[in-house]
């Protein structure tokens, strides 16, 4: 507990000061790191807390991004008013997938395959929705980067950094609070043994469905940020299976089921990915798959030597050092 508070406080202070100390490139890396930390936290609620594996979480990012971006492009409605619609669309989609899976007792890897199937179906669907650009993409009008327009999320890197920083702090605080509620304890009971949890009176179906819906809605908010930060949406990119995998690497490596694990994992992985790309570019290697290979090797090493993740290992080392 002391280690978590100390680490959390240090990260909070460092995060607040980062825009004034970092270059624009480093700031862009931090923005991407915090985005992966945010969506990793959202996925962690579903898998790390409730034990329901999703490998198609990019679907909720895409639904949230297209819902808010479509409203902005065609009606001029800003992202803050479009965000509730994005959340509703994603929650309905999550509820549908969860209801089908849990109603017909689809468990484990088969439930994960169900999420992949829906994500692929959504990608193909958006490829053919011409009003939203189809496979040619949807493009948001880009405002002046020198100004700050928080209402429409138009501005420079510093503005976007603080937006995703606040979002990440908020979802981390929400995760911490949820773990200490009755619902959080029910999720953890289901994660450990669903049959035993049901035997002691936990409403398993409803509780798992709530985890899926909450995770989907929060992930959609990450999609809204994605749309207004990058200003371009392509179904092949935003709904891709590789994006779903990238989203879950941070909580797995950082520590699933922990509050700070997704944040620690994202702050390790994203800079490592950038460093890897810089090294292979310097060596003249053009194969884009090298980065995925490095991430795969790192994942294997973490699972082999630190099966609980980096953050639990750090807290154990901290506690051991204090005892000594």
Mind explaining what this structure looks like?
- This protein has 324 residues and is mostly helical.
- The chain has one domain.
- The chain is 76% helix and 2% strand.
- It is built from 14 helices and 4 strands.
- It has a two-stranded antiparallel ribbon. Strands 2-3 form a two-stranded antiparallel ribbon.
- Strand 2 and strand 3 form a beta hairpin.
- Helix 2 runs parallel beside helix 6 and helix 12 crosses helix 13.
Structural class: mainly alpha
Radius of gyration: 20 Å
Distance between the termini: 17 Å
Count of helical segments? 14
Helix and strand run:
HHHHHEEEHHHHEHHHHH
Domain count: the total is: 1
- Judging from the principal axes of the Cα atoms, what is the shape? globular
Q: Spans of 5+ residues with little confidence (pLDDT < 50)?
A: none
In short:
The chain has helices at 2-21, 24-49, 58-75, 79-103, 108-127, 157-178, 182-192, 194-199, 204-230, 235-238, 241-254, 261-282, 290-305, 310-323, and strands at 138-139, 148-149, 154-155, 232-233. It is an all-alpha fold and 324 residues long. The strands form two sheets. A two-stranded antiparallel sheet has the order 1-4.
Could you list some keywords that capture this structure?
two-stranded antiparallel sheet; 324 residues; mainly alpha; globular
């Amino acid at each position: 507990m002391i280690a978590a508070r100390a680490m959390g406080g240090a990260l909070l202070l460092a995060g607040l000061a980062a825009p004034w100390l970092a270059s624009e490139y480093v700031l862009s890396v931090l923005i991407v790191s915090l985005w992966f930390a945010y969506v990793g936290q959202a996925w962690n609620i579903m898998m790390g807390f409730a034990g329901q594996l999703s490998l198609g979480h990019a679907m909720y990012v895409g639904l949230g991004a297209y819902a808010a971006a479509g409203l902005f492009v065609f009606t001029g409605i800003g992202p803050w008013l479009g965000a509730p619609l994005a959340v509703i669309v994603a929650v309905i989609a999550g509820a549908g997938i969860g209801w089908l899976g849990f109603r017909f007792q689809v468990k484990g890897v088969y439930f994960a395959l169900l999420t992949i199937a829906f994500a692929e179906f959504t990608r193909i669907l958006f490829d053919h929705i011409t009003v939203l650009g189809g496979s040619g993409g949807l493009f948001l009008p880009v405002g002046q980067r020198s100004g700050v327009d928080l209402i429409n999320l138009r501005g420079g890197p510093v503005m976007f950094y603080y937006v995703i920083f606040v979002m990440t702090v908020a979802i981390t605080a929400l995760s911490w609070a949820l773990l200490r509620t009755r619902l959080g304890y029910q999720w953890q009971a289901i994660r450990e043994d669903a049959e035993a949890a049901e035997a002691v009176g936990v409403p398993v179906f409803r509780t798992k469905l709530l985890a899926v819906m909450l995770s989907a809605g929060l992930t959609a908010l990450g999609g809204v940020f994605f749309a207004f930060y990058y200003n371009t949406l392509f179904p092949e990119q935003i709904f891709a299976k590789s994006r779903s995998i990238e989203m879950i690497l941070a909580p797995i490596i950082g520590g699933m089921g922990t509050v700070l694990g997704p944040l620690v994992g994202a702050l390790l992985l994203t800079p490592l990915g950038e460093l890897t790309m810089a090294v292979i570019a310097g060596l003249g290697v053009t194969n884009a798959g090298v980065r995925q290979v490095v991430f795969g090797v790192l994942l294997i090493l973490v699972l082999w030597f630190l099966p609980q993740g980096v953050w639990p290992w750090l807290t154990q080392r901290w506690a051991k050092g204090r005892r000594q």
